[in-house]
């Protein structure tokens, strides 16, 4: 039987970027010890009080069909959180709950793009972005950035593609680079979206992980609330990656249509997951800071280790749980270096090439193991790079 071109073409005919990660997992399955610095999975699991609330509400009976848009109380809680942090008036009618941030990204592009429309995204990008856009029927178009600019998108690069596009996807704090977009960058993004009538889809799942500068939601910029769809999630802020609870915040009319989409696709998120998410959000910013603290700490460890050598370069690590390291001095591609490091030292990292052409010659390191082990792995990585450079 013939499969659809849409499903067969999700990766654009090439790798989906997860090859090194999958090799590491096969090695682990064979009993080989591997230090994993690949995916953004907290080393501390979901806090016990959140799990206890999940258990309580499940035992209490909230296991049937939940409200497809999300429970009214969770939507109210998300709306209040967004309004408090951005100053933009936000109600439950601006919020739809989704099965995680990934589903939110897909739904947002379904709302913004018709089949064949050009959808822009910034390179380097999270590995699922191009496939998500293709799955929504859009034609993905990458906007290249440069390591020399700390991967901040330039106005001229955006304008070279914006006239023929219908949407632009950005992510700040950024995965994979760890960069937080500057006010100047966000103002240029907003200006171009207004001038060329683009939807802006803003992936803000790392908004609680900012080490330098500040996070600004572009929905709060002048003239942007009516053309911005914000993607949020419980995964990174509350260490609830497996719970699959996220949201989209946007104009009321778009949210109404996204609720219709949910009715025909996901049919909502389990009620006990939503109840636990609401409970988690009400624990406040202090709890979110506790979840983020290990990554702030390990970022300082990384800066100390990398400052002691001259082979591996560090892209400014301003936010999120990742480091983008420049290994071009070794003469190797990021992919070759990642395979070599895995084979030689059983340390798994993600090649920069998994995240686009702009990150070639780099690797992404997830700061997701205990401090002492993280320091040791990073020191080994740097020594390995020095030997390869020599």
UniProtKB/TrEMBL annotation:
InterPro entries in the cross-refs: Aminotransferase_I/II_large (IPR004839), AspAT/PAT-like (IPR050596), PyrdxlP-dep_Trfase (IPR015424), PyrdxlP-dep_Trfase_major (IPR015421), PyrdxlP-dep_Trfase_small (IPR015422)
The entry's keywords: Aminotransferase, Pyridoxal phosphate, Transferase
Entry EC no(s): 2.6.1.1
Record-annotated Aminotransferase class I/classII large domain positions: 35-381
Names of the cofactor(s): pyridoxal 5'-phosphate
CDD domains: AAT_like (cd00609)
One Pfam entry name: Aminotran_1_2
Top-level taxon of origin: Bacteria
Catalyzed reaction equations: L-aspartate + 2-oxoglutarate = oxaloacetate + L-glutamate
GO molecular function ontology, one term from the record: transaminase activity
Family affiliation: Belongs to the class-I pyridoxal-phosphate-dependent aminotransferase family.
Protein name: aspartate transaminase
Lineage: Bacteria, Pseudomonadati, Pseudomonadota, Alphaproteobacteria, Rhodobacterales
């Amino acid at each position: 039987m013939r499969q659809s071109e849409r499903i067969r073409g999700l990766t654009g005919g090439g790798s989906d970027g997860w090859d090194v990660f999958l090799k590491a997992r096969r090695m682990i399955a064979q009993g080989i010890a591997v230090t994993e610095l690949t995916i953004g999975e907290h080393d501390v699991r979901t806090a016990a009080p959140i799990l206890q609330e999940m258990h309580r509400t499940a035992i209490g009976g909230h296991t049937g069909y939940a409200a497809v848009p999300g429970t009214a109380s969770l939507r109210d809680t998300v709306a209040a959180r967004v309004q408090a942090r951005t100053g933009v008036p936000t109600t439950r009618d601006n919020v739809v709950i989704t099965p995680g941030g990934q589903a939110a990204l897909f739904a947002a592009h379904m709302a913004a793009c018709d089949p064949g429309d050009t959808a822009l995204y910034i390179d380097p990008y999270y590995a699922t972005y191009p496939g998500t856009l293709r799955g929504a029927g859009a034609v993905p178009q990458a906007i290249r950035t440069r390591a020399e600019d700390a991967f901040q998108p330039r106005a001229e690069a955006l304008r070279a593609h914006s006239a023929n596009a219908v949407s632009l996807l950005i992510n700040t704090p950024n995965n994979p680079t760890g960069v937080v977009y500057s006010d100047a960058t966000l103002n240029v993004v907003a200006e171009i979206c207004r001038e060329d009538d683009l939807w802006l889809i803003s992936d803000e799942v790392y908004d609680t992980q900012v080490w330098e500068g500040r996070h600004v939601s572009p929905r709060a910029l002048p003239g942007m609330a009516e053309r911005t769809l914000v993607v949020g999630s419980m995964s990174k802020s509350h260490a609830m990656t497996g719970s699959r609870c996220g949201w989209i915040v946007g104009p009321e009319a778009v949210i109404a249509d996204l609720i219709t989409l949910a009715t025909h696709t996901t049919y909502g998120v389990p009620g006990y997951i939503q109840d636990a998410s609401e409970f988690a959000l009400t624990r406040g910013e202090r709890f979110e800071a506790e979840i983020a603290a290990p990554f702030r700490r390990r970022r300082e460890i990384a800066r100390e280790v990398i400052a002691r050598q001259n082979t591996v370069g560090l892209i400014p690590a301003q936010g999120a749980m990742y480091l983008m390291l420049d290994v071009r001095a070794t003469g190797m591609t990021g992919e070759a270096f990642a395979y070599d490091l895995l084979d030689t030292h059983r340390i798994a990292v993600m090649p920069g090439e998994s995240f686009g052409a702009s990150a070639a010659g780099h690797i992404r390191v997830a700061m997701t193991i205990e401090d002492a082990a993280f320091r040791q792995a990073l020191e080994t990585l740097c020594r390995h790079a020095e030997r390869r450079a020599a």
